[in-house]
Amino acid sequence: MSTPKNNDTQSAIREAIRAKRERKSGVEEDIAALEASLIADIETFDLDAAERRARREQSANSGAGMSDSALVFPEIVPSSAPHRPSASSPTPTATTAAPKASEGNLLDQLRHQAELRQREAHSALAERNTTNEAIDQALKHLFFYLHEFVQQLNILKPAISRQYLLVDQHVLGSLTWQEGFADYRTQSQSAGALVELVSFSYRLIGAALPPIERDGPSVERFRTTLFDFGLPFTCKEFKNERSYVERAEFHITSEVSVSARWRADFAKGTLILESRNLERLGSTVYTVRPQAVDQALLEEFGRLVLSQPNHFRDLARR
Predict the structure, then answer these.
(1) Which of 178, 181, 186, 301 is deepest in the core (most CB within 10 A)?
(2) Which residues contact 235 (CB under 8 A, 6 or more apart)?
(3) pTM above 0.85, yes or no
């Protein structure tokens, strides 16, 4: 059983231990606060500003320098160099924030311009793809119609009432459908494999023509004309004693080759119809919008081929 004296001794010991622990904790807290203060001073210490201040004080106190520190010349800094704030500056981040703000404004402007450029490019690409698909669909529709059209005419071999004026009073007439053909061509797979050409051609056979004579320089001109029209012919020349062709007799076969090439112009978003000997001898070019190629236009084109009354030109100009 413990005595009051022992209890007093134990209490004193406990008090001493607690006091020692509290003093040790306080010392540790003081050390930590001092360490944090030193670290903060080191981080905010401006070495360059301290060096400049020390040089000014040394110059003011030395005999070589001026005795009045207020008369010491300031340090010359290039205007292009960024301003470095001193340690005594109340807002050290204000001067460094200005270049970042201006840089951000420039980047914002460039980013906005780039976004506009990308948006324009995407819009142009989408519009071009839409137009290209319209051309592709129009040419497919055209081929399917002409393919069926040719098959029926190759069986029927109808008479074509068109007359082709050759020269003077010579006319190619009494024509009959002989044979026709329709075909198409597509782009490469890498280019999109879109239909870019539909070709349509046929031959007409007519009544025989009498020989046509030409003399002097007109012989070669007439020969070139027949070549341009694609008309088959033979030529019998009559020369003088100096082997000069005085005149020639042309025997023309009454056979007319007709072609109509529907070509895609993807750059302009249109269809180009290049015809030869379709309505007359020679070449004709039509420009047709892909949206205009519908069933009504194809029917009118078929009537044009058969030399029936039609409104193909009016529909092609829509």
Answers:
(1) 301
(2) 223, 248, 249, 250, 251
(3) no
For 290, which DSSP code? G
φ/ψ of 315, rounded to 5, equals: -70, -30
**306/5 Cα distance (integer angstroms):** 140
What is residue 249's DSSP assignment? E
pLDDT in tens, 261-308: 999 999 999 999 999 999 999 999 999 999 999 999 999 999 999 999
Every domain of the chain and the residues it spans: 4-67, 135-316
Which residues, in sequence order, are CB contacts of 186 under 8 Å at separation 6+? 193, 194, 195, 196
Report the 3 state secondary structure along 19-60. HHHHHHHHHHHHHHHHHHHHHHHHHHCCHHHHHHHHHHHHHH
Contact between 87 and 49 (Cβ < 8 Å):
yes
